[in-house]
Structures are given as C-alpha cells and as structure tokens.
Specification:
33% helix, alpha/beta, oxidoreductase, globular, NAD(P)-binding protein, binds NADPH dihydro-nicotinamide-adenine-dinucleotide phosphate, oxidoreductase activity, acting on the CH-OH group of donors, NAD or NADP as acceptor, 13% strand, Rossmann fold
C-alpha cells in the first residue's frame, strides 16, 4: 500500500515507519526540514535507494493548506497516517503552540485529502487517552474508561495551563476529525489510535537528551537524580509500549474491521514509584541517583483507588516484550492490544 505518514521524525512515528517498511508498504513521510529528512535517511538507506521511502517537507502543520502538496503523489496514496501534533508543555501560548497545530493540522490534512487525493481510502489519526480521560474527575475511582468516553474539557479550561492545553488539543482535534467524517462524507474511513502514556526504545534521531520526547522524560528524570528526595506524582496511571502503538497504526488501515473506530490501546497500569523500582533493580549503575524504596511520592492513589480501563480484545496485533529492562511492566501487560469497538 502507498502510505503518507506525517511527522516522521517523532518518537511514535519512527516506530510506525519501521513497521510500515517491514511490511512492504511504500512510504512518503513528512518532516519539517530537509535536515530531519537526512537524519531518517541514515537509518533507512536501503529503502531510500530502492524508492520504498521518500520525504515531503511540511514545516508547520498549523498553516492552512499545509498538506496540499504532500497528499499528492505518484503512485497515489491509499492510506494516510497522521501522527504529527505537538506533545510538550514548553509553551507560551496554548492556542498558537498546542491547539492550532493539533486542530488545524488534523482538519487541514482531511481537507487536503478530500480535495486532492481521491485515491485515499483510510486515514489513521494518532489521538490520545487525553481525549478520553476526564481530568477534572482526578483518579476517578469506580469508573472504567473505554472508547465510549470523551474528555469534556472546554476551550476556556484549555487555556488555563499547558497540561490542560495539551489534553484539549487532542480532544478537539479528534472531535474535529469525527465531525469532518460525518459532515463531509469523504471517500475515506477514519480510525483513531488513543494511547495513554507511551514508553519504549528511542529509534528516531535524537541529538540531545534535552530533546527527549515528553512521555519518556520521567525515566530520564529518575536516572538524572531528580526523584532522589521525592518522586514526582504519576498523573496518569496507564501506559502502552511504543512498538504496540506502531503496530496498531498499521493494523488500523490494513484491517477493514478497524474502519471508523477509535482504539484505546493500553497495556496496563504503572506508577512512577514502580518505574524507579524497576530501574533500581535492573540498572545498578544509577543507584546513587535513584530514589530508595522509602522515598516518598510517585505511588498509586491511596488504597489503589483509581479508574479501571476496559480491556476487550477484538483485533489482535503481535505482542511485544514490555519496556526493555522494565520487567515489572510485564505483569500488567494485557497480552495483546485490547482493541475494542467505540
Ligand atoms: P514527538 O514529539 O516525538 O512527535 C511529535 C511530532 O509532531 C514530531 O515529528 C514533530 O516534529 C511534529 N510536530 C509537532 N508540531 C508540529 C508542527 N506545528 N508542524 C509540523 N510538525 C509538528 O512525540 P510523540 O511521538 O510522542 O507524539 C506523536 C503523536 O502521538 C502526537 O500526536 C501525540 O499527541 C500522540 N500521543 C503521544 C503519546 C505519548 O505518550 N508519547 C500518548 C498519546 C498520544 P518536530 O520534532 O520536527 O517538532
């Protein structure tokens, strides 16, 4: 299948690109600059040479019409995987830095496809558990989150702080995609992949640890000694392996039954305290930097009272080993990605 993958320089997208290429798909990936394309080329020389992989430069997805050129290719695209969206909290203007690129990026690519790429049959969008979880309800004991849930966050709440801003950006962008499908009745299906916190190996070009992607940062903080006196609050207790998220993106357009559904892909629960304990057990070289068993903070809520997640298995993708070295994580793995109907 001829596939367009947006944001190829990202943490999740780099794994998705690997899966696409391994499965024999022909891929064009968008990146913001030629330098970023050159870095991906280094890891995929063979595929670039054979023509299986090429690049399209899209500097800013928040611009109207940003994808107009990228969606047109010869041979034409059949599937589009839209992963590009800001996930960081280093923002001065929530609207401009988070909401606009997420929302305009999503509606923009759907408009460009409808207008200029009639051959596209499937669009897969990276949404998030952020579009599902109701942050105002805190740890929400007694509730089971599933694809039926929507984060009820408002635009006003979005502007209150970067964390709200990010969650709202994912919520509004995903809503805009489903609205587009309903109103515009395009020629393509839409599937969304909604992962909670994504952990796993880095396969994309990373020039500095300062630029480590947001979800892996807490592991870095632990080994840098930032949790030595107190472990940071966990915040969200669900996680999934990046390799499973990548598989899910590809399965979502390869399998017809995935059309027009959202998929809350979840492996299990974790706490920052467990993250620290797993590193302590497996990486003795960080002993001096790490918190001890009695360091306060980072635990599950009192009495393990927090939300549940629905684990229904509908579509199976191959099961991965959990985080390398994070053997504790295996215990909470569901055994397969729990795809379920919305
Ligand atoms: P990364 O920060 O590694 O990837 C984000 C990608 O989006 C990068 O390629 C980035 O390009 C691109 N991007 C951001 N803003 C723009 C813009 N204005 N114009 C063009 N490109 C842009 O993070 P992840 O891989 O974690 O995130 C990928 C997707 O997964 C996002 O949609 C995110 O919301 C979603 N997600 C991630 C989770 C996680 O825990 N990691 C959990 C749930 C969802 P560049 O690097 O050049 O800035």
């Amino acid at each position: 299948t001829r596939v367009l993958l947006t944001g190829g320089s990202g943490f999740i997208a780099a794994h998705t690109l690997d899966v696409l290429l391994k499965r024999g798909h022909s891929v064009v990936t968008t990146v913001r600059t030629q330098e970023k394309a050159d870095k991906i080329k280094v890891d995929h020389e063979k595929e670039v040479e054979s023509g299986q992989l090429s690049f399209s430069i899209v500097p800013d997805i928040a611009q109207e019409g940003a994808f107009d050129k990228a969606v047109v290719s010869d041979p034409p695209f059949e599937a589009v995987l839209h992963t590009a969206s800001p996930f960081h909290f280093n923002v001065t203007d929530v609207q401009k830095d988070l909401l606009d690129p997420a929302i305009i990026g999503t509606t923009g690519i759907l408009k460009s496809i409808k207008k200029s790429a009639p051959s596209v049959k499937h669009v897969v969008i990276t949404s998030s558990f952020a579009a599902i979880i109701d942050g105002a309800k805190g740890s929400n004991p007694g509730h089971t989150y599933s694809e039926k849930d929507w984060n009820p966050i408002t635009h006003q709440e979005a502007l209150e702080n970067p964390s709200n801003g990010y969650r709202a950006s994912k919520t509004f962008a995903e809503k805009a995609a489903w609205d587009f499908l309903e109103k515009e009745k395009p020629n393509f299906t839409v599937s969304t992949i909604n992962p909670p916190l994504v952990f796993g190996p880095i396969v994309h070009a990373l020039d500095s640890l300062d630029n480590l992607n947001t979800s892996n940062q807490r592991i870095l903080w632990a080994v840098q000694g930032k949790w030595k006196d107190e472990i940071a609050p966990t915040g969200v207790y669900s996680w999934v392996d990046v390799r499973d998220v990548a598989e899910a993106h590809v399965a979502a357009f390869e399998k017809p039954e995935a059309a027009n559904k959202r998929f809350f892909v979840v492996a299990g629960f974790f706490s920052n305290k467990e993250v620290a304990a797993i590193i302590r057990k497996n990486f003795s070289e960080y002993k001096d930097k790490l918190p001890t068993e009695s360091t306060p903070g980072g635990d599950y809520p009192e009495g393990d009272q927090f939300y549940e997640t629905a684990l229904k298995k509908v579509l199976k993708v191959p099961r991965r080993k959990s985080l390398k070295g994070m053997d504790g994580a295996e215990k909470t793995s569901a055994g397969s990605i729990p795809f379920s109907r919305p």
